[in-house]
Amino acid sequence: MNQHYDILIIGNSAAGLQALRTIRRHGGNVSVALVDRENCPAYSRVLTPYYVGGKTHRENLFIVGHDFYRRFAIATLLGHAAVGLDPDRHQVLLADGTTVEYGKLLLATGAEARGVEITAHGVSTLRHLEDADRLERLLKGARSVTAVGAGLVSIPFLSQAGSDVERHLVIGSDRVFSRVVDPEASAILEERFLATGLVIHKRDDIAELNGTDRLELTLARGERFATDLLLVGKGVVPNTALARETGLAVKEGIVIDDFCRTSHPDIFAAGDVADGRDFVTGEATIQGNWMTAVEQGEIAALNMLGLPCACDGSLKNNTTEVFGVDVAVVGYCGDGAHRTLSAHDRFTGRFRKVFLDERDRVMGATMVGETNDAGVFCQLVRTRAIFPGERVLRGANTYAARLLELAS
């Protein structure tokens, strides 16, 4: 006999969790089920490098426990992958052959690490808890570790690997964090990374891999060295297979409107799989950050409950700490800005760069060093505030005040 639920959620991370909380806050006794391929409560992927590096315990990764789902009366189908979707019949097929019927469906399936063409012991990605468990074992006793890719997986992993370990970073671009921060901030970060002993191989890639006990790497530019562990962190790909196979509109991710509704009226999408409108540019994009996933999860839940609520666009908002340096990026930080203002104090290491449009409204900001003012800049972008102004003066720290001087 088929199982039926008023609302079915596929995905057990930021968007799915927020949708559950919102449904129970506003939805009374509607029946809800959650499906996820991993057989564990929701956990933080951002913290996995800290666990791998021995800086926190495994149990600290979990955001909620099994009691969370029981308390919210959620039927959990954990450890079950969704392999088929029939929008007309409102049915989802699981890998074990179970069919689940739904009234409304939320696809919060996230993204998957880009495929690893290299298959060998000591080579891994870092996307799921099982990846973290494997890397944690591999890192023990390692004398040298290498990561490929210059983004928010490879660099945090190397940062937590330990200063007593030889660390190599292989990147195809000419700068670190090339998809995260602007070139000016990237140069500052690279200088800090090199000072910790990190070896950076720019405009390069893995050309050949040999060895059994240790990996013998040959780079495209000819350099050779041995390493105990190779992490491949070349970005992620949205998990859009279910949507594509059933004819939902998909570009890079699943296309959603401002209500987080897909091209089918009873199917919604949120988080790293959803292609929604960017607040600053108005263009469709996948932000890939926790805050956006939470916002979209809530909006999707409200609309599934019949409580109309529109999103005014998502915002790039990434904060991390690597090699002892705090980094934050808010809003649009690209070459299309009308003008930029920046300030860098080499004594403190703090750097601020603000991106402005033709009306001097704040489009975005990059912060290196103390990032407590990230919320201030986020609010400036959201309110389309002109920079400088009274609001900045009231909320700014020393560095934002310095930017005011540059702007005046």
TrEMBL record:
Its cofactor is FAD. Signal peptide: none annotated. Residues 5-297 form the FAD/NAD(P)-binding domain. Gene3D superfamilies: FAD/NAD(P)-binding domain. One of its GO terms (molecular function) is oxidoreductase activity. The keyword Flavoprotein applies. The keyword Flavoprotein applies. Keywords: FAD, Flavoprotein. InterPro entries: FAD-bd_OxRdtase (IPR050260), FAD/NAD-bd_sf (IPR036188), FAD/NAD-binding_dom (IPR023753). Belongs to the FAD-dependent oxidoreductase family. This is Pyridine nucleotide-disulfide oxidoreductase. It comes from Geobacter hydrogenophilus. The lineage of its organism: Bacteria, Pseudomonadati, Thermodesulfobacteriota, Desulfuromonadia, Geobacterales.
